[in-house]
């Protein structure tokens, strides 16, 4: 993917979250798997945000559905819009670099890493200089 496409995807991801937040919705589970690729009639490939199972209006109390590696490591018990913004930054890092933002040891990490390593092995995320 070109830098132009990656930058467009980051903008689209930002616009989606800005829209949700303007309506008082917290997504609470932003990660690359929750963006679908969409083939536009003009040949562009855009992204669309999905998986609103953990979304809610206003403050999300006592529920943490975010995946390891994309959730704020401070792990506040009550996610807010700031939680989505932190996760969005982690998604940007993955889009732009093709690498995970940070790693934590554990079984969940191993399982999660295996699911997405296949994506990176396809070569869809070449090095960005």
Automatic annotation (TrEMBL):
Organism in which the protein naturally occurs: Fusarium redolens
Cited InterPro entries: Kinase-like_dom_sf (IPR011009), Prot_kinase_dom (IPR000719), Tyr_kinase_AS (IPR008266)
One of the Pfam families matching this protein, by short name: Pkinase
Protein name: EKC/KEOPS complex subunit BUD32
Its EC number(s): 2.7.11.1
Domain of life from the UniProt record: Eukaryota
General function of this protein: Component of the EKC/KEOPS complex that is required for the formation of a threonylcarbamoyl group on adenosine at position 37 (t(6)A37) in tRNAs that read codons beginning with adenine. The complex is probably involved in the transfer of the threonylcarbamoyl moiety of threonylcarbamoyl-AMP (TC-AMP) to the N6 group of A37. BUD32 has ATPase activity in the context of the EKC/KEOPS complex and likely plays a supporting role to the catalytic subunit KAE1. The EKC/KEOPS complex also promotes both telomere uncapping and telomere elongation.
Domain Protein kinase residues, every copy: 1-129
Gene3D superfamilies: Transferase(Phosphotransferase) domain 1
SUPFAM superfamilies membership: Protein kinase-like (PK-like)
Organism ancestry: Eukaryota, Fungi, Dikarya, Ascomycota, Pezizomycotina
GO terms of molecular function: ATP binding; protein serine/threonine kinase activity
Catalytic reactions on record: L-threonyl-[protein] + ATP = O-phospho-L-threonyl-[protein] + ADP + H(+); L-seryl-[protein] + ATP = O-phospho-L-seryl-[protein] + ADP + H(+)
């Amino acid at each position: 993917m070109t830098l132009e496409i990656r930058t467009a995807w980051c903008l689209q991801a930002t616009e989606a979250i800005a829209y949700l937040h303007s309506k008082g919705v917290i997504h609470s589970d932003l990660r690359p798997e929750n963006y679908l690729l969409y083939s536009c009639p003009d040949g562009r490939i855009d992204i669309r945000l999905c998986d609103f199972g953990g979304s809610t209006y206003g403050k999300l109390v006592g529920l943490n559905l975010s995946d390891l590696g994309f959730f704020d490591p401070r792990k506040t018990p009550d996610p807010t819009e700031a939680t989505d913004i932190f996760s969005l930054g982690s998604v940007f890092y993955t889009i732009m670099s093709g690498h995970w933002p940070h790693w934590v040891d554990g079984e969940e990490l191993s399982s999660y890493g295996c699911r997405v390593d296949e994506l990176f092995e396809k070569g869809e995320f070449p090095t960005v200089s």
